[in-house]
Amino acid sequence: MVESRRDGGRNPTTYDTIPFSRDSFFVERPILDLILQRTSELGTRIGVVGLGGLAIEYAYRIRDTYLKPWVFWVHASSAVRFEESYRQIAAYLQLPGWSEPKMDVLRLVHAFLSDETHGQWRMVVDNADTAEVMFESSHDGMDTNITTPPTELSLSEYLPRSAKGSILITSRSRDVLEGMDLVRKLDYMPLAITQAAAYINQRAPRIDLSWYIEMLQKDNSERSRLLQKHISDPRRDRKASNSIIITCMFDREAIPDYLLRGQYTSAHDSEIGFEDDLATLRAYNLIGIDMKNHLFNMHSLVQLSTRTWLEIHKGGLERWQERYIEVMGAAFPEANYDN
């Protein structure tokens, strides 16, 4: 039985789920060194078209390094095989509840590997060839044979994110790899991904993934025009949260919660309402939370889209800029460098 790493990130056991034997006749290729170098930068995701044999050799070389990280192999040719791979990972790690019939093993493994205290790992996502498999949620027609409960998330959103891990994706489709790149550039935010997919689908074939990614990399004025395009999403809460509005005025990193708690609210808001707002924002990955230091952070795209939304409502941006100044003035009444 493999020991689960719950001891602050130490690495007591080498672990892998590589399903193939190593090819003793593997022919060395320069691209392998490049892949090893790129994935050594933890937190990265890279994609390669084809080269299945190369991915096997990559997995064994990573496993045998002095770091001895965990190496996970995930079959992505179908939703069923993807879930089976995650269930195998959960079983060997003996994650709590993994064997329960109704357990959401996708969420279980994602949460475990996204926790940086569980040590270093690498993942190979093999044969991610079909966009429908990787990017459609179960509500949108994903394979109904999987046992995980239906969800609004696509399989691509269950790939873990951690500064202690990296992912190599193999595919025979450049469209799938471009889709993965778009998901990464949107910081894995479900609402942003939904909007991007709907925008592209409504304008295909003239608009494709490459065009959308190119627009996201342009200056803020172009990105703002893109974000102003309204796409209906039945999951979206029509009431704009005060917390997301005022948060967009701050620098987007390391926002102390005391600057928002009890100061931004109106007479009708409450502590419970504040926590409800935070729960909604976190559910859509619109903000991140550093629990140790009680800090919030916001992706640049969320900040830009919120400001853009305020600008198209007459006087909205100016009013919230004034409210931001009031909050900062109350928190730092004296202009001293020390505070």
**Overall pLDDT, averaged?**
75
CATH topology descriptor of the largest domain:
Rossmann fold
The helix-strand sequence is HEHEHHEHEHHHHHEHEEHH
* Number of structural domains: 2
Instruction: Give the strand order, joined by hyphens, for the main sheet.
Output: 1-4-3-2
Q: What value does the Rg take, in angstroms?
A: 22 Å
> Which structural class do the helices and strands define?
alpha/beta
Q: Give the N-terminus to C-terminus distance in angstroms.
A: 53 Å
Biggest sheet character: 4 strands, parallel
How would you characterize this protein structure?
It contains 13 helices and 7 strands. A hairpin with a 4-residue loop joins strand 6 and strand 7. It is of the alpha/beta class. The model is unreliable at 1-12 and 230-247 (pLDDT under 50). The protein folds into 2 domains: 1-185, Rossmann fold (3-Layer(aba) Sandwich); 242-331, Arc Repressor Mutant, subunit A (Orthogonal Bundle), CATH 1.10.10.
